[in-house]
Amino acid sequence: MEEVEVELLKLIENNANLEVEKIAKLMGKSIDETRELIDKLEKKKVILGYSTLIDWAKVLNEEEVTAMVDVKVTPARDVGFDKVAERIYRFPEVKAVYLMSGTYDLSVSVKGKTMMEIGHFISEKLSALDSVLSTTTHFVLKKYKHDGIILQDADEGDKRIVVSP
Amino acid sequence: MSQISYISKQVADLKPSGIRRFFDLAAQMEDVISLGVGEPDFVTPWNVIEQSFHSLEQGYTSYTENAGMMELRQEISKYLSGSYHLTYDPSDQLIVSVGASQAIDLALRAVIDPGDEVIVVEPSFVAYVPTVRLAGGIPVTVQTEAEDEFKLKPEQIEEAITSKTKAIILCNPNNPTGTLLLQEELEQLAIVIEKHNLLVLSDEIYAELTYDDAYTSFPTVPKMKERTILISGFSKAFAMTGWRLGYAAGPTEIIAAMVKIHQYTMMCAPTMAQHAALEAMKNGRQSVESMFESYKQRRNFIVSSLNEIGLQCPNPGGAFYAFPSIKATGLTSAEFAEQLLQEEQVAVVPGSVFGANGEGYIRCSYATSLKQLDEALNRMKRFVQKRM
Fold first, then answer.
1. Which CATH number fits domain A56-143: 3.40.50.300, 3.40.50.2300, 3.30.70.920, 3.60.21.10?
2. What pTM was estimated for this model as a whole?
3. A163 to chain B: which residues are within 8 Å by CB?
4. Which SUPFAM superfamilies does the UniProt entry name for this protein (chain B) (predicted)?
5. SS3 (DSSP) at B263
6. CATH assignment of A3-43, among 2.60.120, 1.10.10, 3.40.720, 3.30.1300
């Protein structure tokens, strides 16, 4: 991957709504060159989407519950864990699936409106899959940091004096 | 009853910093976007902050050696050797100071006798002229020109030299212009410096922040190491301005003289800050690189935006300042800065505070978030359009 491509990716990683004009200026490139770079990275599926990180805990009536589920599974012949992982990640309730080393096989992040909703999903859909041997569910009580972004209301304002040497 | 002033003539004659005066004005206003700040907008990397807590927990709350912790001096020596192939003996050629500012003060007091002249290249950092005066010296200013990209030419030094000239202060990359002097330009200056046997105070605090061309540390220029006091610190590269930690490297005799003054006036730099700096030196490279990348992008952004607005601005090679011309507005730099602050709540520093040739320019620091920078430039555009 070229250096400019990496530079562009770093720029938009935490700021997906940065306009092309600004990206171009920051990188010292023309707008056309920048647009071309973005297109190329989208086509190569390096850029897969542009998401927004929202602290739903702050939105009235829009709270959600997250659970991290440790799943033990029976791997299938030839495809190992991939097949069962696919069965699981296709569910819209499932936000992330990772193959893990250690005492369980898959770490599954599940989101729902209530604990009850998540409970139903795990007992009726996830545990019911043939290759799933067991599940252990951990509900997230509070989020402090997500994807490198600190969610607390710490005062991160500019503490510098207005004019300094 | 007659009025007696207890203030020394030396201090009474010092003019207050132009920046301070402007700061007082800006401080009274609300919602000011500041491009007037000469320090990183980043907070010190967490591992560095954490290390200072750890050092306190471990009970490191007492003095260190006058010249600074040996371990820190060894790391600084390793850094200078690794980055510039400069060899300084940590035992007697390095001193850890309370910021690079104190290192400048110590260096000048160590070498200046009353009446000695020191060449200061303007536009310059606001502290050089006063610290020369406080050391009993006479500052002789040399004005670099915008058409030379504010680069000092050897003949300018030659013209300023008298029989009393003892030293010259170089700041590379320069605050406030961002001008970077390249190796061959430094070599040309070195010829005159050697010919007239001058001592050089090389302020290299912004050395880590050079964007397009390779950086040359002045003592690496042939025959210059033995006549140069290299001054640097942790403030800019590691975002550690408030920790007040700098250092100087130079010939044994001069460093010994600096340590002598330091031990009577300061004892040593704060211990917890020295521990933090040690961590910064050992494990801080990644933070420096990521901050550097941001500065470079913002430099590109501010320079191209200023030129679009109509404020002619060359591409600065280093530091985190843009120094655009505001001559097209017909205002003086002080008028421009004051009116911009009153009308659009954007703080910039008038170029005139950095010396006579700074008139017609303003210093805009781009060590601020892209969001703030973008908004400040929108406001400046509105302001400039009314006047051009």
1. 3.30.70.920
2. 0.89
3. 19, 22-23, 26, 34, 36-37, 347, 349
4. PLP-dependent transferases
5. helix
6. 1.10.10
